């Protein structure tokens, strides 16, 4: 069988229309319901017109399709943060990776939402891990995991290209339930939800080699953005001094400078975290810490600043001098201090986005309360990115993103028996499963394999 035929078959299988339509009323009854903020025993979740209509302990409404969840767990769909879902197929194959930008004249304006692929094989795999939404972020030299190459991202190379290197681009929110057969290919929920920038060692490398250089250059960049915002007409008639960034980048950074768009800052070392918090205070910038492996050392300061953290609680090895104090109790310590945390998957949350629930389970085994771990996969990511109440929880009015699990979703052996995205039930299929079923057959094998 030709590879092209196999791929075409996999795409066709994944594009099968979901068995439940968004306008259908579905009642999931008898399960242990984790709403994201509470637990309801023997609960009933009603989904209608793509959203949660009700949640409680009553019976199913008349005419609803009933799903028996007795002995099972019903949970909100998980939200993958710091993810590459839909933006990267094979990260080391340049033509399939839409998360990298090596332009020397466009950085902050880079918008990953234009490169999203609803046919990506990564989406069904993540769905089978309970992921129904994702925050897709551009890659940069400080990105978490994956197989990125620094010479293929902006800001590095011979001579050091400083101007575009401070910013990797803008993140987007997607859903993982495109109804391809029905023509619903758009997975974009909201573009340009945050700006992304490396700090710490990676940011210092972009800025010339020293952390102090990056902070000064960052402040100067924001000063120029504000100068441009006040003098657009002068800029148009070439009556303004030369600025470091392109017009597109300047425009993209205005919301950051105004404090209306959050800046996802990749940072690990405790001292760097404190300097980022100081920078945010001085410049009036809204920041989200990404990584923060040494965050537990300065948890009280992070909490006092009201800054959320995206983290992988299994990052516990001192891989470099930025992570000398990394430990498995990081998530528990930050949560105990009052920091809003969101738990990430592994290696860029693309092919291994589904492992976020395993990471949450590990965090629980190292002191994070169970309900806080569920929140870190559901309501917290929505809250961090300005989508509170819209998804990530089972509550009236929220998107109908619901997963029925065979058991505790933080247990690796638990599997979904039903997955709804926006009220549409999704097929429990993925390309790896299709390949498994195709090639575990002993006879008859395809002709090419019999020769």
From TrEMBL:
Key words, A-Z: Signal
Q: Which PANTHER family match?
A: ALPHA-D-RIBOSE 1-METHYLPHOSPHONATE 5-TRIPHOSPHATE DIPHOSPHATASE
Q: Which residues form a coiled coil?
A: none
Q: What is this protein called?
A: Amidohydrolase family protein
Which organism does this sequence originate in?
Answer: Brevundimonas albigilva
Domain Amidohydrolase-related residue range list: 273-413
Renumbered to this chain, the signal peptide range is: 1-22
Which Pfam families does the record cross-reference, listed alphabetically? Answer: Amidohydro_1 (PF01979)
């Amino acid at each position: 069988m030709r590879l092209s035929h196999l791929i075409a078959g996999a795409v066709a299988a994944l594009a099968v229309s979901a068995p439940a339509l968004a306008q259908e009323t579905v009642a999931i009854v008898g399960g242990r319901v984790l709403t994201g903020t509470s637990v309801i025993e023997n609960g009933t979740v009603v989904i209608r017109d793509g959203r949660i209509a009700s949640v409680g302990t009553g019976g199913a409404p008349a005419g609803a399709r009933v799903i028996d969840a007795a002995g099972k767990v019903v949970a909100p769909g998980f939200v993958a943060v710091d993810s590459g879902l839909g933006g990267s197929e094979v990260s080391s194959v340049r033509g399939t990776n839409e998360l990298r930008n090596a332009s020397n004249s466009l950085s902050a304006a880079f918008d990953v939402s234009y490169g999203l692929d609803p046919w990506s094989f990564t989406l069904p795999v993540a769905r089978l891990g309970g992921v129904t939404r994702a925050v897709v972020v551009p890659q940069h030299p400080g990105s978490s995991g994956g197989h990125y190459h620094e010479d293929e991202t902006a800001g590095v190379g011979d001579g050091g290209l400083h101007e575009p290197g401070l910013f990797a681009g803008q993140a987007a929110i997607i859903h993982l339930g495109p109804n391809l057969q029905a023509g619903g290919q758009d997975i974009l929920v909201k573009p340009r939800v945050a700006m992304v920038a490396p700090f710490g060692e990676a940011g210092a490398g972009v800025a010339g080699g020293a952390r102090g250089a990056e902070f000064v250059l960052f402040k100067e960049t924001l000063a120029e953005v504000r100068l441009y915002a006040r003098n657009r007409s002068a800029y148009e008639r070439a009556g303004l001094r030369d600025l470091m960034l392109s017009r597109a980048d300047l425009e993209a950074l205005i919301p950051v400078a105004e404090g209306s768009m959050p800046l996802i800052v990749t940072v690990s070392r405790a001292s760097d975290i404190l300097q980022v918090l100081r920078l945010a205070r001085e410049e009036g910038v809204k920041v989200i810490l990404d990584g923060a492996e040494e965050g537990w050392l300065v948890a009280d300061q992070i909490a006092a600043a009201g800054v959320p953290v995206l983290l992988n609680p299994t990052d516990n090895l001192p891989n470099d001098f930025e992570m000398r104090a990394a430990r498995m109790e990081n998530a528990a310590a930050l949560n105990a201090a009052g920091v809003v945390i969101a738990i990430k998957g592994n290696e860029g949350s693309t092919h291994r986005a589904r492992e976020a629930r395993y990471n949450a389970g590990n965090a629980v085994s190292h002191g994070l309360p169970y309900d806080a771990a569920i929140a870190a996969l559901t309501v917290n990511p929505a809250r961090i990115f300005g989508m509170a109440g819209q998804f990530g929880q089972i509550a009236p009015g929220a998107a109908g993103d619901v997963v029925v699990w065979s058991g505790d979703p933080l247990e690796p052996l638990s599997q979904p028996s039903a997955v709804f995205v926006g009220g549409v039930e999704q097929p429990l299929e993925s390309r790896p499963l299709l390949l498994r079923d195709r090639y575990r057959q002993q006879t008859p094998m395809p002709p090419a394999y019999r020769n």
